[in-house]
Structure formats: structure tokens, C-alpha cells
Amino acid sequence: MADAFHVVCPACDAVNRLPRSKPARAAKCGRCGAELFSGKPIELGGERFKRHVARNDIPVVVDFWAPWCGPCRAMAPVFEQVAQELEPAARFVKVNVDAEPGLAGEFGIQGIPALFVFRNGQVASKKAGMMDPASLRRWIAEGTGR
Which residues are catalytic? Predict the structure, then answer.
């Protein structure tokens, strides 16, 4: 196991190298000084999304959603709760499929909410529909191998 891992800054998209020997929760970006982990999902799209999926050494958990979608709005607080509990072990991201139809098409999103876990830049797991916090935590653990 490497003595450090890479995390993309949610503010400036710089790739930061974090030592495993120090707590990551308090880490700040070496370029812009922003907190690397706020315990809240970050909204991404386009190239920013691709950079976070490709360059984070931690799993990236993604909620593909839309503002008009009732189940998506109901899933949002569950996703936020689990993000607060599990960061910095994973990065939590939201992608608005109305604003990012290209990403929705690229990943074959047909129903929302659609949840994906990416590891090493690849889809490790995906699931459509709502989940309660316990089910979401369990699904993430299965998808990340943790």
C-alpha cells in the first residue's frame, strides 16, 4: 500500500497528495487552501467530473439526479447524510442530468436517481432508485470493497 493517496480539490480541481499517516478530514488544498473534505456532496459536470473520477485515489460515489424528480429530491438528504458519515473514505458527487445530458448519455442513465461508484476511474457498481441510509452505506461498501 502506498504511503500517500491523491485527492482532487472540490474548489480548484488541483490534485493533492495526502499522506496516509495524517488525518485526511482536516486536509486543505495545496493550491487554493480550500478544505478537501467538507462532508457534503459536490456538484460537478463535464471535464470537472471526469477529472475527479480519473484522478481521485479514493472511490467516487455519484448521484445522477434532476431538480424536477421527486425521488431525487427525497434521496438528496440521504446522500448528504451518508457523505457526511463516510468522507474522507470516498468523494461524494452530484450530477444534474438536465445540465449534463452528455454525461447522462455516456453512462446510459435511463432512470433517476441513478447511483454509481467509481474506483480507479472505472464504474465499480451502479444502481437506480432510492435507498435508505443503511442500504446506501451497505451498497457503497460492496462497491468499494470496504
Answer: 69, 72
